[in-house]
Automatic annotation (TrEMBL):
Enzyme Commission no: 2.7.8.2
Protein name stated in the entry: diacylglycerol cholinephosphotransferase
Keyword Metal-binding attached: no
Organism: Cristinia sonorae
PROSITE patterns: CDP_ALCOHOL_P_TRANSF (PS00379)
Chief location category: membrane
Length: 424
């Protein structure tokens, strides 16, 4: 069984990307740069090749974290400080990722390959990048393995989910005056750059002291003098709140214009908090201690597994968007996460030790098994969807169509549209 039902395959030919970018930085600075950058790529290079090249930069960044800070995956937990110059490479790698992510669509239009496959591929890479950047950014901010990092991942995934949910209901990708793919990424590039000059301990500096506000009684009375890294987290929470309001406003407006119920889409937000609660329930299990996973070498594998489960979930959402299928309420990977969370909390639920995770060694085996299962599940999803789309449209994922092929594809799309209209 495939992910795209037979009746939904024809919708692939009808799909057309629509996007709105309100960012002034993007319009006046970055877009002229991207327009020039795409001309450096030969037209025989497929857009998805550019997208994957960008993700490779992020994977290299993540690999350098594990190489230069091996204790991040050990019980000591980041006791070895990576060399400061490594943060400059993280900044460069992320900037390259953003640039490649921005020009893959331009390359698609240059080569006549714009379509649903590129949309799926782009979102899949973005979903993987989101989790990896949270881990890297929190390391650069000296937050490391902590509940702050968990909160940061939840907030970052929430922003991504909101964007995908909004695109599903409005039919277009909306990037506001401050968006994750533009200003958010540049802010992280700035964090990496500052850390490269100052080291991670700089971010522990009390924020009010740093800005010279610790002597202002009116401010210190209501604002705690916490570290700069926690101030960054607070800023992220404000941005998330703003994006929630903006996303729903766009969905509300689109539904009213279409004479549809503007409140029903809110129900489609429920799957995300459910998944977050499952993961937090698992992380806060009373077995051994409430922060056992967070304070152990299992933290990074757990976060990566969570990110893969999320990527699978939003991947199915964007697939439903490009094929005009019903909203996917349930994700099969939830079952495994629920088993893990319930088992870890057996002491809290029924007063007995977990059946599976009853020892630190068993917890380690189970979480690494979770990571492996989620990785292969997401890889299988990506492979199957790519095969279904390429087989139906007669295209290749990493090969540019010849001009004749493009003409045939467009003629086939027109025939499908005519047939659809006749049926209607």
């Amino acid at each position: 069984m495939g992910y795209i039902p037979e009746h939904a395959l024809a919708n692939l030919r009808k799909y057309a990307y629509k996007g709105v970018d309100k960012s002034l930085l993007s319009k006046h600075v970055l877009n002229p740069f991207w327009t020039w950058l795409v001309t450096l790529w030969p037209t025989w290079v497929a857009p998805n090749t550019i997208t994957l090249s960008g993700l490779t930069m992020v994977l290299i960044n993540f690999a350098t974290l594990l190489y230069f800070d091996p204790t991040y995956l050990s019980e000591k937990g980041g006791a070895t400080e990576p060399p400061q110059w490594i943060y400059f490479t993280w900044a460069a790698g992320l900037f390259i990722y953003q640039s490649f992510d921005a020009i893959d669509g331009k390359q698609a239009r240059r080569t006549g390959m714009a379509g649903p496959l590129g949309e799926m591929f782009d979102h899949g890479c973005d979903a993987i990048n989101t989790t990896l950047e949270v881990i890297l950014t929190c390391r650069a901010l000296n937050l490391g393995r902590s509940w702050w990092t968990v909160a940061s991942l939840a907030a970052s995934l929430a922003n991504f989910y909101l964007t995908t949910w909004e695109e599903y209901h409005t039919g277009q990708l909306y990037l506001g005056v401050f968006s994750g793919p533009v200003e958010g990424i540049l802010m992280i590039v700035g964090i990496y750059t500052v850390t490269g000059f100052t080291g991670t301990t700089f971010w522990d500096t009390p924020a009010l002291t740093f800005f010279g506000l610790d002597k202002v009684e009116l401010i210190t009375k209501y604002v705690p003098n916490r570290g700069l890294n926690e101030a960054v987290m607070a800023l992220g929470a404000v941005v998330l709140g703003f994006n929630i309001i903006t996303s729903y406003y766009n969905v509300f407006k689109a539904k009213v214009e279409a004479n549809e119920g503007p409140f029903r889409p809110l129900l489609h937000l429920l799957p995300f908090p459910i998944t977050v609660l499952i993961q937090i329930f698992w992380l806060s299990s009373p077995s051994f201690n409430r922060s056992f996973i967070i304070n152990s070498s299992l933290f990074v594998p757990f976060m990566c597994a969570w990110g893969l489960q999320f990527a699978h979930q939003v991947g199915r959402m964007i697939l439903a968007h490009v094929t005009k299928q019903p909203f996917p309420w349930f994700d099969s990977l939830w079952i495994w996460s629920i088993i893990g969370a319930v088992d870890a909390n057996m002491l809290r639920l029924i007063g007995r030790q977990p059946f599976i995770q009853h020892s630190p060694e068993n917890v380690k085996i189970f979480i690494h098994l979770t990571l492996a299962i989620f990785f292969f599940s997401y890889a299988s999803f990506c492979t199957q969807v790519i095969n279904e789309i390429t087989n139906y449209l007669g295209i290749a994922c990493f090969t540019v169509r010849k001009k004749d092929d493009i003409g045939n594809w467009r003629r086939a799309a027109s025939v499908d549209k005519i047939n659809t209209n006749k049926k209607a």
